[in-house]
């Protein structure tokens, strides 16, 4: 792990540093020229590099090597060794991303302090990265319907290639999770998955966000393209990208290189591009809002993600998956789904697709006060959009002002009185309709302060 590459054209110096570091328990590799240095880097990236700026008889100087390392292995800390006369160059190297510099002739303690700090910083960064990777959402895709199996079949085929994929489907249908599935099952799984949210980046910032920036004051600030190097770049809602940025992106896809804003160097990255859209890009092209050439570049392998209404069979499976997830992440009750509730879910319209279902289940679990199966009443009507919302409960000002327990009590009272009236005070029929045992309904009415009195011979009746 603690393997240090020492690059200096002066043999005495590189061997001296090597000996000191070996004594301190590090393992070292030595390079006397830029060619030797590149060969070592290609063989295996070291944990840290000590790099002399002036390299006699070499093709590249220290700054060139630094730029290459920062481009290809940005995680390796580079400590620069500079001669007394070229502190300015050393400072410039820091701006290019070097960790620190030490001046020749150097003091051993100073060298060791710098190296220890650099190692700590890079270990920390590595730990953070691995945490981030753990945090990266797992691409769990649940389903067993023919439409779902068709989708997985297509995704499995494209994971093996490197082709650009265009995922088409309505909002919340699982396009991003499908893109993550491709990434996690491909040979890029250990490299980053970076999302470009085309709709939320302001047009004037999109180039800086994608390509990064470079200036003498702030050095190199890599953009998302560089951050995704080796992995997958996911363009979410690609139709929302401004036309000007579309041309720039097209050029990157054609040339395979780009320049950072304010920079002159050509940057080359190795990426797989996956895009998604909820609208028909052909319409966008016809309306002059999307560049046709970019469409053809991105749409090499089109994959349709079906809406939830085309895979209603998957609803119970998805519900138990989300119940499990909310149990594990929020400690919510692990409730089963009643057959009636499943039937209600399977007849709903789902304009928000799987995301809407997930939100509904979360709400039901938070509001529910039992561990029993989720009932039809709990799921019905509560998540329909306003325009077809004839069954939505409109919360009166009075209810909205109460805490949940009291609001629930007020609602139950109102609801049960309405039902009792509807059934002419017949408690058996009321109990049957509201889905409770007669004795349970009695208890409920009593607890709500609704009085029961003896009624007809055949059945008791109620007075409110
Ligand atoms: N097959 C599936 N199995 C389990 N969870 C899923 C599945 N499909 C989607 N989801 C979940 O549904 C939610 C929405 O999915 P996702 O963000 O991938 O949709 P999207 O199509 O990219 O949405 P948008 O177009 O709005 O960005 C996420 O929480 C995702 O994990």
Automatic annotation (TrEMBL):
GO biological process: phosphorelay signal transduction system; regulation of DNA-templated transcription
SUPFAM superfamilies noted in UniProt: CheY-like (SSF52172), Homeodomain-like (SSF46689), P-loop containing nucleoside triphosphate hydrolases (SSF52540)
Domain Sigma-54 factor interaction, first and last residues per copy: 141-366
Name of this chain's protein: Nif-specific regulatory protein
Role description: Required for activation of most nif operons, which are directly involved in nitrogen fixation.
Residue list for modification 4-aspartylphosphate: 52
Assembly notes: Interacts with sigma-54.
Keyword terms: Activator, ATP-binding, Nucleotide-binding, Phosphoprotein, Transcription, Transcription regulation, Two-component regulatory system
Native source species: Donghicola tyrosinivorans
Pfam families: AAA_lid_14, HTH_8, Response_reg, Sigma54_activat
Every Response regulatory domain range: 3-119
Keyword Nucleotide-binding: yes
Gene Ontology terms, MF aspect: ATP binding; sequence-specific DNA binding
């Amino acid at each position: 792990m603690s393997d240090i590459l020492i690059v200096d054209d002066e043999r005495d110096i590189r061997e001296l540093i090597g000996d000191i570091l070996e004594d301190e328990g590090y393992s070292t590799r030595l390079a006397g020229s830029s060619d030797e240095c590149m060969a070592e880097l290609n063989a295996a990236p070291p944990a840290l590099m000590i790099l002399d700026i002036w390299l006699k008889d070499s093709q590249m100087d220290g700054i060139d090597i630094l730029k290459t390392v920062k481009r290809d292995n940005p995680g390796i800390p580079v400590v620069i060794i500079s001669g007394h006369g070229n502190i300015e160059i050393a400072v410039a190297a820091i701006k290019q991303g070097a960790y620190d510099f030490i001046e020749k002739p150097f003091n051993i303690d100073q060298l060791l302090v710098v190296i220890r700090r650099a190692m700590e910083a890079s270990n920390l960064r590595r730990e953070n990265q691995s945490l981030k990777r753990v945090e990266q959402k797992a691409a769990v895709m649940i389903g067993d319907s023919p439409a779902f199996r068709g989708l997985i079949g297509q995704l499995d085929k494209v994971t093996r290639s490197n082709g650009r994929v265009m995922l088409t489907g309505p909002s919340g249908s699982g396009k991003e999770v499908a893109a993550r599935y491709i990434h996690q099952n491909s040979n890029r799984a250990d490299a980053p998955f970076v999302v470009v949210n085309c709709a939320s980046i302001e047009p004037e910032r999109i180039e800086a966000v994608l390509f990064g920036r470079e200036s003498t004051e702030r050095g190199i600030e890599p953009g998302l393209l560089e951050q995704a190097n080796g992995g997958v770049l996911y363009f979410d809602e690609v139709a929302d990208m401004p036309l000007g940025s579309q041309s720039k992106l097209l050029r990157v896809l054609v040339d395979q290189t780009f320049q950072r804003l304010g920079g002159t160097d050509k940057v080359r990255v190795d990426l797989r591009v996956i895009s998604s859209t909820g609208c028909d890009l052909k319409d966008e092209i016809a309306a002059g809002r999307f560049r046709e050439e970019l469409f053809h570049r991105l749409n090499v392998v089109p994959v349709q993600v079906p809406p939830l209404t085309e895979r209603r069979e998957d609803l119970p499976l998805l519900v138990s998956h989300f119940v499990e997830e909310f149990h594990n992440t929020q400690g919510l009750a692990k409730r089963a789904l009643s057959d009636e509730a499943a039937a209600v879910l399977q007849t709903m319209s789902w304009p928000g697709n799987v995301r809407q279902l997930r939100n509904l289940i979360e709400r039901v679990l938070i509001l529910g006060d039992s561990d029993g199966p989720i009932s039809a009443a709990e799921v019905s009507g509560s998540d329909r959009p306003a325009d077809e919302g004839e069954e939505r409960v409109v919360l009166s000002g009075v209810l909205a002002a109460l805490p949940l327990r009291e609001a629930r009590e007020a609602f139950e009272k109102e609801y049960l009185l309405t039902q009792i009236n509807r059934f002419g005070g017949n408690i058996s029929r009321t109990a049957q309709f509201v889905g409770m045992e007669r004795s349970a309904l009695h208890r409920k009415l009593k607890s709500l302060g609704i009085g029961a009195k003896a009624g007809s011979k055949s059945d008791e009746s109620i007075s409110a």
